[in-house]
Design a protein that fits this description.
Strand order of the largest sheet: 2-1-3-4-5
Pfam families: SIS
Keywords: Aminotransferase, Cytoplasm, Glutamine amidotransferase, Repeat, Transferase
Number of helices: 14
Catalytic activity: D-fructose 6-phosphate + L-glutamine = D-glucosamine 6-phosphate + L-glutamate
GO cellular component, one term: cytosol
Bound molecules: 6-O-phosphono-alpha-D-glucopyranose
Protein name: Glutamine--fructose-6-phosphate aminotransferase [isomerizing]
Largest sheet: 5 strands, parallel
Number of strands: 10
Length: about 375
């Protein structure tokens, strides 16, 4: 009913709008007054976490994209090697694990069969399993050694939005906490990122307040035959997520690529008028990545692409090459997906609506897939 949708036409719109609160609720009570993380709920003793020598993330769909971002965060802040794999592939290749492996299973519903079977396999091998889950008491957390709940509240729309942002928060918390208990050389950076995470709800709110031009752009692209998405570093999974949203909701051909791979194949797809969304890393962090992606934008634009550029406020280098510029607030490099994903959700939702599709219940998809 309209009341359940809180005045919005679709649950998806409501859930996109709820993201600042979902992020804030997922952070709540987890950052101590001393600026350190307290994740007592993890139930895996710090001593065990100190001995972990490998992390494996398993998940499906949108949660898998959160897992890809987790890998960047975990390897950077903890120096523990981290793999990420779609849950449906994981157990069939005889993966290598032991009691020093930490497996992180990410699932909004907690009922996805592929993810459940992956975690069962991991536990049989002696690995410790930590679930990141949005549904209290669901099967995946019940069968895991520990759980870190996301507090997105119930997500009704099939395409995941607020759950994804809270999965990112949970992944950052786990990565930062592992860094904190293990005491890496990134101690100062970890403290400052923990502080900046507290600012994420306000930044997401800020992005949501600037989405009207993105909606207009989406409507203007309703007849586009395809849309490509490029990103690098944590922007790569964001590009994949942007493309997935467009497939799920608008039934369009949409593909995400690592921008550096462009020259190894996908650049052949570029032709006059093709919309290409580019997620640009901060020019402050690893500026080499920023500069390389600016070159990519030039290259595709010279070949006729219509460039839709998502870039940090104050990044002037992209301005000459952006047919459409979407600004996001400055964040630490690894946290950028919290803000860069939001315009892509809005874009897909609006484009699908313009095409007349039912965004809450896309064809052929289920919110929770309980078969392998
Ligand atoms: C289904 C949904 C996706 C979701 C995936 C994983 O395929 O349509 O939106 O990302 O399952 O769901 P989970 O509940 O495990 O996060």
């Amino acid at each position: 009913s309209a009341a359940e949708k809180g005045g919005y036409d679709y649950f998806m719109l409501k859930e996109i709008a709820e993201q600042p609160k979902a992020v804030a609720d997922t952070l709540l009570g987890r950052i101590g007054t001393d600026g350190r993380l307290t994740l007592d709920e993890l139930r895996i003793p710090d001593q065990v976490l100190r001995e972990v020598d490998k992390v494996v993330v398993v998940a499906c769909g949108t949660a898998f994209h959160a897992g890809m971002i987790a890998k960047y965060a975990i390897e950077h802040w903890t120096r523990i090697p981290c793999e990420v794999e779609v849950a449906s592939e994981f157990r069939y290749r005889d993966p290598i694990m032991d009691d020093r492996t930490l497996v992180i299973a990410i699932s909004q519903s907690g009922e996805t069969m592929d993810t459940l079977m992956a975690l069962r396999h991991a536990r049989e091998q002696g690995a410790k399993v930590l679930a990141i889950c949005n549904t209290n008491g669901s099967t995946i957390p019940r069968e895991s050694d520990a759980v870190l709940y996301t507090h997105a509240g119930p997500e009704v729309a099939v395409a995941s939005t607020k759950a994804f942002l809270t999965q990112l928060v949970a992944c950052y918390l786990v990565a930062l906490y592992l860094g904190q208990v293990r005491g890496t050389k990134w101690g100062d950076e970890i403290s400052s990122v923990i502080r900046e995470l507290g600012d994420a709800p306000r930044q997401v709110e800020q992005v949501l307040g600037t989405m009207e031009p993105v909606r207009a752009l989406a409507r203007s692209l309703a007849d586009a035959p395809a849309v490509l998405f490029l990103g690098r570093h944590v922007g790569h999974p964001v590009a994949l997520e942007g493309a997935l949203k467009l497939k799920e909701l608008a039934y369009m051909h949409a593909e995400g690529f690592a921008a550096g791979e462009l020259k190894h194949g996908p650049i052949a797809l570029i032709e006059e008028g093709l919309p290409v969304v580019v997620v640009v890393p901060s020019p402050r962090g690893r500026s080499i990545l920023h500069d390389k992606i600016v070159s990519n934008i030039q290259e595709i634009r010279a070949r006729g692409a219509r460039t839709i550029v998502i870039a940090e406020e104050g990044d002037e280098a992209v301005v000459p090459y952006a047919d459409h510029l979407i600004r996001i607030p400055a964040t630490p490099t690894l946290l950028q997906p919290l803000v860069s994903t939001v315009p892509l959700q809005v874009f897909a939702c609006e484009l699908a609506t313009a095409k007349g599709h039912e965004v809450d219940q896309p064809r052929n998809l289920a919110k929770s897939v309980t078969v392998e």
